[in-house]
Write a structure and sequence with these properties.
The chain has helices at residues 20-25, 56-74, 80-100; strands at residues 33-38, 44-49. It is α+β, with helices and mostly antiparallel strands and 102 residues long. A two-stranded antiparallel sheet has the order 1-2. β1 and β2 form a beta hairpin. α2 (56-74) runs antiparallel to α3 (80-100). It is elongated and about 65 Å long. The protein starts with 19 loop residues before the first helix and ends with a helix.
């Protein structure tokens, strides 16, 4: 197999553009999934994946973190009894997030 290589810079959002020639050589299309692996020598390897399993954490992490943050903001406005309830709910959300990360 012929080796193809090109140098690209990482933009301010951490993205790189895979040139059209490389996408064509690897049969990559918009929406394809790539697994990104770092080996022991810190080389980055990208592998095309046919199917991607989306974990529960990936699916719900942003919503859980947003909920936890909203609950933390609500502490300031509530009386003692509501505060204890919110604290318990916040602890539960944090526990769910921790379990999903395992």
């Amino acid at each position: 197999m012929e080796t193809l290589g090109i140098i690209r810079r990482i933009d301010d959002l951490g993205r790189i553009i895979i040139p059209k020639d490389l996408r064509k050589a690897c049969d990559l299309k918009e929406g394809d999934a790539l697994e990104i692996i770092i080996d022991k020598d810190k080389n980055i390897i990208m592998k095309k994946r046919e199917e991607v399993e989306v974990s529960l954490l990936d699916k719900y992490n942003d919503k859980l973190v947003e909920l936890k943050n909203k609950m933390a903001e609500a502490y300031i406005e509530k009386d003692d009894e509501q505060f204890r309830l919110l604290e318990a709910q916040k602890d539960l959300v944090e526990e769910v997030i921790k379990d999903l990360r395992k």
